[in-house]
Amino acid sequence: MCGIIAGVSDEEIAPILVEGLRRVEYRGYDSAGVATLHDGMIEVRKDVGRVGELEDSHHVSGMKGKTGMAHTRWATHGGVTTANAHPHPSCHGEVAVIHNGIIENYLELKDRLAAKGHVFASETDTEVIAHVVEDAYAEVHDPIKAVLRGIKALKGQYALVLMFSDRPGLLIGTRNDAPLVIGAGKRERFLASDVLAFISRTDRAVFLDNNEIAELTPDGFRVFDLHGGQVKKPATQVAWELSDVSKLDYAHFTLKEIHEQPETVIRAMMQEPKKLEAFAEAITGAKSVVLTASGSSYHAATLLKNRLSKEARMRCDVVLSGEFEGYEHLVDGDTVLVAFSQSGETADVLEAVKKGRERGAKVLTAVNAAGSSLARESDIVLLLNCGPEVGVAATKSFTAQVMVGNMIADAVVGQSTAREPKKVSAQIADVLRLEGRVREIARELSNRTDFYFIARGSHYPVAQEGALKLKELAYVHAEGMPASELKHGTLALIEKGTPVVVIANSQEGFDSTVSNAMELQARGAEIIGISDRVNPVFRHFIEIPSANASVAPILEVIPLQLLAYFMATERKNDPDYPRNLAKSVTVK
Ligand code: F6R
Prior knowledge:
By secondary structure, this protein is of the alpha/beta class. The chain contains 17 helices and 25 strands. Helices cover 34% and strands 24% of the residues. It has an 8-stranded antiparallel beta sheet with strand order 3-2-4-1-10-9-11-15, with helices on one face. It has a 7-stranded antiparallel beta sheet with strand order 5-6-7-8-12-13-14. A 5-stranded parallel beta sheet has the order 17-16-18-19-20, sandwiched between helices. Residues 294-297, 341-343, 346, 349, 393-394, 468, 472, 585 line the site of fructose -6-phosphate (F6R).
């Protein structure tokens, strides 16, 4: 969940690191820090808050040195304090480390090292890494050997980078169940948790696998296995379009990404026909199909599950990745496991896939990040092609997943959607033109504390998605539920003025959904209708174009994304960086 970038260059490294750090800030933003190596000394500047604040208060881009590392934190062990911010130097200042992940046995290691005289400056699990490696380095005097020895003592999940005060121009990085990528530029090399961190400097990336150790100098890199043997790693050319992570004229990335969705649907449909065919064939030929994902990706996966069971008449399940453990006994060699993820680095999803694989399942994936761990561990990968999503809330990636899910379902049932993307794109553009109306509603309702979102059938995952967006962006309690469930309990919570968003599709359960809305209205609820058909029960109404059941969820979700966005801005929240969250949830 933390963002890492480290680099060795023949130029001053700090400004390069600060720019890279801003690009991975979506991964965590509790605190930030930079360390550089200059004249045999490691200097560390760090503080709580965002990268911009660190730059303003500590002028980190002016730090001297051509070897350095930078980190943006999402706190796990230890509060949000300057002492707990990374980088962490060892007590003698000989080693510094940045880390993304969790060291499970850190207390045991800390006790052991403290007994040897090591003094700790933070409450973090990460700091022990610096001390463990410093301890080993004092004995073996070789950075690679010291790191090899050090990581053998660590239990947990990590992507980490180390530098040594007496080794200018050298960085060592390694990973276990957390992403780490080498950027191989001209006379400079990087280690980062995401290609985005160094894409403005180089488009040549080398994706490290678990338990590989990389040694970087400005001129080259070498990769070793756990036994110290050298491993050949080819470089991949990554798309330059990734470098386009500016907000353009939009106030926030989230708003920009919401507005990109007319293009998202077109790009999502640019799939290699052979791959799509193989994906669909694997599903059709499987004895059981299980979909797995987390958060918004789970809602998109649920839509695919609904189509497969309804239209292809397949028995299939959708399981939250974090709950996969209770389900895995039903997975075997005749199962196809379909994982949905934007980042491809969500720890719960990777764990579910690992469990599925161990039980013999074939793994198919729809993912946005092409070089991600999930993409690399899957048998067939369909890319979402929606470009980098910087806003922490999933918006365009959800839409891309629904679109790719539709293509999968269409291929399974033998239906063609070839003519659709332009039409859907135009319909999305029409919905986006309702932004002003949604903003007015958000303004009127911005001080309400509880929202409910209801829908039926294939629209229910949209209600869940709308509630999730509102919670994470506006910090408002929200629940998404099937309209039919209200009378089984939730109705007791409805009071005068309780806002209820009613998603009612004219082609599926419209009358019964409207009846539920009337029951709510009779108890004082203020109904916000999202529908292709007007009804007097709607106190506020967002009219969306009519579309079939597979496309309607996309048109319905856009006003809900906008509602959450404007509720957030009305409430003075930063929609791009919601509190306590991070985009890539790489811890379990
Ligand atoms: C919600 C959101 C999260 C992610 C979830 C899964 O707006 O962004 O709920 O959907 O963390 O992330 P990925 O799709 O990267 O696996």
